[in-house]
Amino acid sequence: PRSIYLTRHGQSEYNSMGRLGGDSPLTSDGRKYALALAEFFEDEEVPGLRVWCSQKVRAAQTSQHLKPDFHTEYWKALDEIDAGICEGLTYDDIQQRYPKQSEDRAHDKYHYRYPSGESYEDVVSRLEPVIMELERQANVLVVSHQAVLRCILAYFYDRPLPELPYIDIPLHSLVKLTPRAYHCDSTIYSYDI
Ligand code: F6P
Asked: Is 163 a catalytic residue?
């Protein structure tokens, strides 16, 4: 059986400051995770693994130690949800500067669209071609971001849309999905870094 592996990038500088989005590089913990990920795929038998990475620096850095014979592609569609006017802010900043936005988002997180940015619903629609390809491919590792991976997991786990934006996907953990006839087996490998 083939498997789909999903991971967020390692901890970025913005993650460590609680800031949304941006394009910051990995912290030293994030770099440790990138090494641990490469080690995992040294041991795991995954013939012809394809690596699909977002176009953000933190995702590319997370995949950089993987064996060069794994074919890597960089998909813009795998970039993190665009938080528009809230990019680079913390949740507290947003609460203070744009209290109405915080409130609207809490009210309907799936449909809420950041001004000049995206909603989860928008991310789901831009991921359609990625998911179609994932359905056709053999072994794939996706290196992406929290909101994007929530959308992909909700599809494979068949979770209701209102729950999608709350699926827990911690940093430094790798999800292995093995599609079966009517469900997906999943294993989570967590790294304590
Ligand atoms: O904080 C990391 C991050 O990936 C942000 O870039 C993104 O806006 C956020 O998580 C998505 O999570 P939530 O929708 O819960 O704010």
From this structure: no
Q: Decide: 89 in ligand 1 pocket, CB within 6 A.
A: no
Each residue's pLDDT tens digit, 66-122: 998 899 999 999 999 999 999 999 999 999 999 999 999 999 999 999 999 999 999
- Active site includes 111? no
- SS3 assignment for the chain: CCCEEEEECCCEHHHHHCCCCCCCCECHHHHHHHHHHHHHHHHCCCCCCEEEECCCHHHHHHHCCCCCCCEEEECHHHCCCCCHHHCCCCHHHHHHHCHHHHHHHHHCCCCCCCCCCCCHHHHHHHCHHHHHHHHHCCCEEEEECHHHHHHHHHHHHCCCHHHHHHCCCCCCEEEEEEECCCCEEEEEEECCC
- Does the CB atom of residue 145 touch ligand 1 within 6 A? yes
pLDDT, tens only, 13-38 = 999 999 999 999 999 999 999 999 99
